[in-house]
From TrEMBL:
Residues 21-103 form the Lipoyl-binding domain. Binds 1 lipoyl cofactor covalently. This is Glycine cleavage system H protein. The glycine cleavage system catalyzes the degradation of glycine. The H protein shuttles the methylamine group of glycine from the P protein to the T protein. Belongs to the GcvH family. The keyword Plastid does not apply. The gene is gcvH. The lineage of its organism: Bacteria, Bacillati, Bacillota, Bacilli, Lactobacillales.
Amino acid sequence: MANKRFFTEEHEWIEVLEAKRIRIGITDHAQDEMGDVVFVELPFEDDEFEAGEDFAMVESVKSTSEIFIPAAGHVVAVNEQLEDEPELVNDSPEDEGWIAEFELEEDFDGSELMDRAAYDEYLDTL
């Protein structure tokens, strides 16, 4: 299941790196809707979060959006590049613009989330 991507209705992507390790960012659709990103409030390494809790904030010229974790875990890495280059979220939202990585309490299967095809279909309904 490593390197499988899932998507949320809140336009976040979750990449499974290992059974209990995930990376999270926002989708291309989300960054497009937000406009130019000017600041990303990152969590600190070792911060712990419960499922559904917000762990970061992305601020753009249009709005501020909270970013949520889909399962309980703690931060093991943050994308420090975003501190100096928040525009990476616009330029490469689903690659270099990732926000944080987490070690989860349990294996992550993504069964409650959408795969790319389902997410693309969801976008067509908006």
